[in-house]
Amino acid sequence: QKEVEQNSGPLSVPEGAIASLNCTYSDRGSQSFFWYRQYSGKSPELIMSIYSNGDKEDGRFTAQLNKASQYVSLLIRDSQPSDSATYLCAVNSMNNNAGNMLTFGGGTRLMVKP
Amino acid sequence: GAGVSQSPRYKVAKRGQDVALRCDPISGHVSLFWYQQALGQGPEFLTYFQNEAQLDKSGLPSDRFFAERPEGSVSTLKIQRTQQEDSAVYLCASRQMWGGRETQYFGPGTRLLVL
User: Fold this and answer.
1) Which of B21, B81, B87, B100 could cysteine-pair with B77, CB 3.0–4.6 Å?
2) pLDDT per residue over A83-109, tens digit each?
3) CB contact under 8 A, A44 and B31
């Protein structure tokens, strides 16, 4: 059973629009949440991290976390063709002094059309 | 170095051959992770080191997979008697901790193709 779920897409949005990417997770003990961007043939690149309920904004990116609903999302404003990539949601259930791994969703492929 | 490095970047192996994949983490990062990423999937955890100690190897798919980090820096992932299902990208990540928060930085990966 997959612990982190994402719609595989592709999600297609026009240039300048808002792209909304969603992720649900099953482990209620999860404490750290991450969005990675992965271009084809490249390694994942961290773009956002969020640890508490609510919104966190960084430039054109906003991460939203709702622990009660076990839901995390990423909004990309003013989408650009260069944002076209696979977006991976990752979750970590770190305990004190433990080195728990990241559990990744399967990724959502985003296509931004000029 | 500036980031996590991995070598080789590409490896083609014949079925049954042994392979060794190398990871150089970011200097000073004590935590190191190996992940396997199949085509069209998200990365999946293989194993974790804290310094030289392998604290979690629950993700290794079989006893053909072995990882080590003898001096707490460079790590090697070894796959014995490779099978076609081992074809994937193998990603190494090192982790920075600050104020209870973490960031995992990924290397470029080694793309393994087993024929």
Assistant:
1) B21
2) 999 999 999 866 544 557 889 999 999
3) no
In which residue are the tokens 């944002």 written?
A83
Amino acid A106 reads: G
Q: Which amino acid is at A92?
A: N
- DSSP per position, B8-68: -SEEEE-TT--EEEEEEPPTT--EEEEEEE-TTS--EEEEEEETTEEEE-TT--STTEEEE
Q: Give the closest of A42, A99, A104 to B43, CB-based.
A: A104
Instruction: Enumerate the residues of chain B whose CB falls inside 8 A of the CB of residue A4.
Output: 42
Of residues B56, B104, B108, nearest to A102 (C-beta): B104
A22-31 pLDDT tens trace: 999 998 888 8
Please, what's the b/e burial string for B96-110 (b: 16 or more CB within 10 A of its CB; e: otherwise)? eeeeeebebbbbbbb
* Cβ distance of B42 and A104 shorter than 8 Å: yes
Cα angle A45, A73, A27 (rounded to 5 degrees) comes to: 90
